Amino acid sequence: MPSFKSLAAASTAMASFALAGCAALPGGGNIPDSNTPITQSEAQIGAEAHPQLLAEFGGAMSGSQAQYVEQVGKTIAVQSGLGNARDSFTVSLVNSPVNNAFAIPGGYIYTTRQLVTLMNNEAELAGVLGHEVAHVALRHSQRRQAAAQRNSLLGAAGAILSSVLLGGNPLGQQLGQAALQGSQMLTLKFSRSQELEADTAGIQYLNSAGYDPRAMATVLASLAAQNALDARLQGRDDARLPEWASTHPDPASRVQTALSQAQGMSGVTNRDTFLSRIDGLTYGDDPKQGIVEGRQFIHPDLRLAFTAPQGFYMVNGTRAVTINGQSGKAQFTLAPYNGNLQTYVNSVFSGLSEQQQIRPSSIQTTTVNGLPAAYGTARVNNGNSQVDVTVFAYEFSNDRAYHFLALTPAGQSGTFNSLFSSVRRISAQEAANVVPRVLDVITVSSGDTVASLSRRMAYPSAQEERFRVLNGLQSGEGVRAGQKVKIVVRGS
Description:
- The chain has helices at 7-21, 40-56, 64-77, 85-88, 113-118, 122-137, 140-148, 153-166, 170-178, 192-209, 215-233, 244-247, 251-261, 271-278, 341-350, 417-420, 428-432, 450-454, 463-470, and strands at 90-94, 101-104, 108-112, 282-283, 291-293, 296-299, 304-307, 313-316, 321-325, 328-334, 364-368, 371-382, 385-397, 400-409, 424-425, 437-443, 484-490.
- 49% of the residues are buried.
- It is globular and about 70 Å long.
- By secondary structure, it is of the alpha+beta class.
- A hairpin with a 2-residue loop joins strand 12 (371-382) and strand 13 (385-397).
- It holds the Pfam family LysM.
- Residues 1-20 form the signal peptide.
- Its EC number is 3.4.24.-.
- Residues 440-487 form the LysM domain.
């Protein structure tokens, strides 16, 4: 969340992306073969969406790590059979703390730095990028739009979001499309058959490029393990998150399929090369985007912080921070501010739905930790039930305000009272104390064990579990002297 874009600007960007997604299919609607070169129409679609998508995922990274990812991506893209594939594809490493990879028409391929930190060799990186190349080569976005008669990618994103927030009910769809779209929800959700098709093509690409095709299965296994660990640490009873494992569903069940398809194949993994090239990569939240530490969110550049209620967990997105729990959902973001908090609160409510007018019964003003604040709650019909929608806004300067948009069952808006009252400015010293976590690739010494290495992880809890997932180690599996492994340490 580098700068909390205004919702108006964000909506414009997303609308542009949506329009790009519904361009006419090449050849009057016929689906091209996988070895058909990227067309001028497809290239234009991607070129128009690319800047907005980069902004949604924290921007493109530069430097040697980004160049390495681009090199591997273009090498695997050549295997797709697309004419002039190396030059036709744009491969970007984006500064996002979620495990995600995605592609859009025109040969634009993306992976987040966080997903790269979860990988353990170059073959896994090539497998993930090859999977995304396959979506482009097989024209999956176009097929999904043609089959479902989608008007836009935004519609698909809203549908995914509504199921996350409110089980896919009508209010969820309205709020999802109007105001609660996280950056992770932009990309089109492919069908299960298309995901398996992309896995199969990706394995073929790996094999033809000389990589070990089993890497597709091992990276999927790491994703499944990370999802399960995240779910346990956040107190959830499922492993669903709006990340690569959600837009690319069910990695656990795809592991065995990928292993079966790769049976009898072999190749290089380039493990040590890969680890040396990603050494020092930022892990988790980038302080420039704000960080989540336990139940606290703190943004050193914007000089603010707040704390989620007990039992809730947070996900830091590019444009908003989401707060999730069994008894409610909320997001923290901003909208255009003209210096009047009551007008601000009303404008947020006004933008929630085109289908029904949502207005608070009243708007109250108060002060929270020295910050002028205003809030209101509206009760809204939500299918066969009702929910309370609360907007709680804070003035940080004459031209800058932020707000929570919260959804709770009717009569339970007090669920977030502690959250609303926790917003505060932070001091310059507190801001200076926020440092990133980074990957440190080390060589295992004689006498090192999983337990001893895990104690060096820069986390107060679940150190060994984090270490095992990070390094693709099964329960009970050890390390050996001379082996390179990843740990997460405090940067500077």
